[in-house]
């Protein structure tokens, strides 16, 4: 294998190691919420430093490779790796936010959950895992198939917020805990957003097509009144 | 339409061929517009003896743009470039088939003189080649004088114009009588560009013009090319893909005498359509 190919392979492997840390952090943070596990929550918070360090390492390696003036698929791979790494770092931040709320919730009386937080967690984690699999396999079709799931997570998050708001009105003593669950749900929804971003980058990597914001662009074009219309 | 030109018969000095009028340069025509086709080839093939080195190339070069020709050594890119101003006429065993059109006019047409074509399509070579026994000023005006311009004032004016366009005037204006070879390599190459510009060509062909220069001199040549494209059509052969990416609007990739891919440089270097192109630009060729 040529030197440059070895370096590209090392960059890809570094990103995948970072991804496994980010994915594990989310999984542990969710477990900490569900199992009211203070120690696990604190462990996740400590692990975020490692994910931040990975982001810096990926950037350093990518910039070193960019200085060798790569082109075509190599150029796209390096650019996409930098963007995915940024998304994974934010996934790590969201895991930390969830862990912080898990820590607080573990110190309070349990609140019987009627809201679908485990379901959002499962979906968000599945999206993250699938998007990273699509990166590994350079599978644009899998990446594209994943993107609509973000809407499902958005809808679930809204449902959680609505239910928690009702609970806070009905039982004001649960407000603090409900607010913590709201933050957890919002963080999971953001993790799904990052998974969607990763999937969009995978499509760019495979097909050189930038599909970011295409839904919004199309919606804006549809809502724009035709020229000359009243 | 396919046609065959036998270079021997096209030489102006060949007594077998009656002198032909030059390709008229239409002074009244509107200046070339960016996007307009400046040079186009149709089924262009070139043979050296029995060896076909260029195979039915169809290419449209846009006016007032930089078009880069890339490809591995021996792929036919320099052969292609030289066909565009009839340099192969000077090679007895060379045979050209197909058409090359300059703003629609067939440069290999029966009424067309190669000398006039070379005035309209200038060329800059890899190794800077000023006339060593001539001064800086004489190097610039030699083409004009050969074309019959003798008025001192006009020659002086064109010298300054050409050297200014070649970004060399400020560096040599006080020593125009100095030998051209007293200049640095980068300056000598810009002098060659000034020499090409002095005869007011419409197209400038460049065959690896910066490959013998250091990075600073290369940067000056690249800046110059980007300035020149405002007024000229430039076709450049380069081995340096980063250079092609920096300065060209469109890029053509040649391999084994064939045009493999041609398109916007930004597209070809980020998302080439052909696997051969991808392999070449990423250094995984062969």
Please describe what this structure looks like.
The complex is a heterodimer of chains A (230) and B (286). Chain A is an all-alpha fold. Chain A has helices at 3-35, 38-66, 72-106, 117-137, 140-146, 149-170, 175-207, 214-223. Chain A has one domain (3-216): Up-down Bundle (Methane Monooxygenase Hydroxylase, Chain G, domain 1), CATH 1.20.58.220. In chain A, helix 4 (117-137) runs antiparallel to helix 5 and helix 4 (117-137) runs parallel beside helix 7. The termini of chain A are far apart. By secondary structure, chain B is of the alpha/beta class. Chain B has a single domain, classed as P-loop containing nucleotide triphosphate hydrolases (Rossmann fold, 3-Layer(aba) Sandwich), CATH 3.40.50.300. In chain B, the strands form two sheets. A six-stranded mixed beta sheet of chain B has the order 7-8-9-4-10-11, sandwiched between helices. In chain B, a hairpin with a 2-residue loop joins strand 5 and strand 6. Chain B is globular and about 55 Å long. The two termini of chain B are 35 Å apart.
